[in-house]
Amino acid sequence: MENTPTGTQQHAADTQTITPTPTGFYGPFGGAYVPEILYKCVHDLQDAYLPIIRSEEFQREYASLLRDYVGRPSPLYYARRMSEKYGCKLYLKREDLNHTGAHKINNTIGQILLAKKMGKTRIIAETGAGQHGVATATVCALMDMKCEVFMGATDVERQHTNVERMKMLGATVNPVRTGNMTLSDACSQAIRDWCCHPDDTFYIVGSTMGPHPYPDIVAKMQSVISEELKWQLEEKIGRDYPDYLIACVGGGSNAAGTIYHYVDDPRVKIVLAEAGGCGIKSGHTAATIHCGTEGIIHGARTLVMQTDDGQIEEAFTISAGLDYPGIGPMHANLAKQGREQVLAINDDEAIYAGYELTRMEGIIPAIESAHAVAALAKLKFKPTDVVVLTVSGRGDKDVNTYLNNKHMAREYGNF
Ligand SMILES: *Cc1c(COP(=O)(O)O)cnc(C)c1O
Predict the structure, then answer these.
(1) Residue 350 Cα, ligand 1 centroid: separation in angstroms?
(2) What does this gene product do (predicted)?
(3) Residue 363 CB neighbours (<10 A)
């Protein structure tokens, strides 16, 4: 269904870092490969999003909601014990303290304002772990909008609490029974629904993926993370940049927000952690940048885990939020250029790192964020290095996963 590139400039610029070409390309990746019926809808959004986002009215409403509703700025916290352990100066960017428990609300707040300004009345969203579904249902309650969430039937079973939260917030949760009945299938179903309701419906995409302009919209909404880092670092260390930025990467939105204002600054090293699952050679992995090949998924050309004949392969990881067989086109390009160092972190390493942060700093991270923490052990720092690590979300939702796998955290799991 996704065969029509809506632009011809896809190879115009190989140097595109954080901002895509007018047709949505980051080097060879990106674009808008959508079915004919969505062509107008996607083009209307491409024409509308920048003027709206840049308008003073939007900026004022967005900033005020981020401050008073989400609770921003999120703190930048100096992690003393972890700094000593890893021989660097480690600062944690605390997205886990946001309303609803993760960075995802930064994006849903922005997109619902965009939807309202475009006169849309019905919101749809896909969700895997349910975090984006909850963040979307939350802003729909706030703005009194009708909300339908598509979620793989397997995930509906696995993520019971988030399903109940969405329903409590007034959303309809539609279990998707095609394919593996997980996130990738939920995305496909959301696109199908959008095809049936192109006029009144706004699709709130949850990560830096999907057809242009979504990767750019989501990156811009999350860029508040690095915007805050600039003045927070200036205040704390007297310079506005770190030596390292570390984040986990599923579709790539918290990572995009973390690096947004630093990507063209060569003084800043960027290290991303993707989910290795049982290991990149095990056949049970979600490490798309390591294992993917070029293809098209959910409207964009990017790296995809696929069979030789182009069938999407199921992703595997203990972390529901990183369980996606694609990757945002911006990151596919930055990784290809060598601007991002990408590490595959296996399930057991993430569980261990989650326990470590819990015991050493009193912060239970989301299992997704624990992948970023695990990257620390794989890097060699100088004592003067300033390292900023984004804790994308809190671990309340993952307590059972941590408990069921405490054998993976030898010295901490003995309780
Ligand atoms: C969804 C999620 C992620 C992965 O999504 P990105 O778009 O890659 O940021 C990471 N951490 C948490 C806590 C999440 O909920």
Answers:
(1) 14
(2) The beta subunit is responsible for the synthesis of L-tryptophan from indole and L-serine.
(3) 21
Q: Against a cut of 0.90, is the pTM above it?
A: yes
CA of 119 to the centre of ligand 1 (A): 29
Q: Of all protein residues, whose CA lies closest to atom 14 belonging to ligand 1?
A: 321
Q: Which residues pair with 102 in a beta bridge?
A: 393
Domains and CATH numbers, the chain: 25-63+104-218 (3.40.50.1100), 73-102+222-413 (3.40.50.1100)
Give, rounded to a whole angstrom, the gap between the first and last alpha carbons of the chain: 51
Nearest by Cα to 15 from 264, 267, 221, 289 = 264
- C-alpha 89/C-alpha 163 separation (Å) is 39
Residue 16: predicted pLDDT: 79
Q: What are the pocket residues of ligand 1 if the criterion is a CB atom closer than 6 Å to any ligand atom?
A: 102, 104, 131, 207, 248-255, 321-322, 366, 368-369, 392-393
> At residue 350, what is the residue type?
A
Which has the closest alpha carbon to 218: 137, 362, 107, 293? 107
Nearest CA to ligand 1 atom 4: 250
